[in-house]
Design a protein that fits this description.
Length: 352
Amino acid sequence: MTPVTLAAPAPSPTPRNVLIIKPSSLGDVVSALPIPAGIKRSFPDCRVSWLVTPACADILANQGDVDEVILFDRRLYGRMLTSPAAGLAFLKFCRQLKARRFDWVLDLQGLFRSGYMAWQTKAPLRAGFADAREAAGIFYNRRIACRSEHTIDRSIELARAVGVDARAEDFHLHVDPAARQKVEALLAGQSVRPGQFVLLFPGTRWQSKTYPARLWREVAQGLARDWPVVLAGGPAERELCQSLAGPGIVDLAAQTNLRGLSALISLARLVICCDSSANFLSPAVGTPHLVLLGPTRPERTGPYGPLGRMLRPTVDCLGCLRRRCWHDSCMQWIAPADVISAAREMMAAAKT
């Protein structure tokens, strides 16, 4: 998918201290990577902080353009309506944000909670999307109406509207060398060579985006006839990946942290996934990827850049954006034979 051409930025005062609010999920966090790079290009002496959940923080640990990671304890603060202690902890957190005296806050999440935290900083510039959900826009003093549709391009457009020279080519994730070495050793223990395996991510957060396990099994077994197949995911995908393992199919689910996961993706010859974090991590580390899409829309969260390709079924309700579906039709109509054929084409093209 080719990034859209973005309008020239509007002039804005020079910031010294900027906060990016993009707490979760992992794919959403990765999608905002061009923003700190753009801030540093535009304002080299500016300090960049990023508010993120502990579950996603590890992915930012080696990003040179991020000076500070501020942890947002979503599990704790999510109980503040029923727990006085959690409510007091959240108020303390907001006071600490205000004490940091940010010049700019860019809310790239666009929800009530993220907008409220932006407002609590009392920063002179609090920018967010004009179409932010949950009435988050009431907390901004600069609401940006974006023409772009893809989530990466929307973040870039918002940043450029306030004077940040953010660019699509800044969509890059640094792979930690130490994590890469550990993953190479992990692969060597399974007799798998870097650059010579297909990496499958069977899991997703939405039930409706999930490709059925029986179809993943056909894909994995079909590809394993030609190349080693590696299965990956977090603890939630451990049971699913165990059920798919077999001859020529190696299960590495929940065996790496996020830095190790990005290293594993960078070492693959091809990634096959649904609309999940791997859909964003793969282009960020420069790995070809095949994405299976059903209820979500490619113009918003589809493959980004020249290394991605997608497969979609032909059904009337395609792109419904429903998290749950009673008939689960769309993903089941992506034939394993089509996935295997597309993967073979991409593996051949990626040959070095």
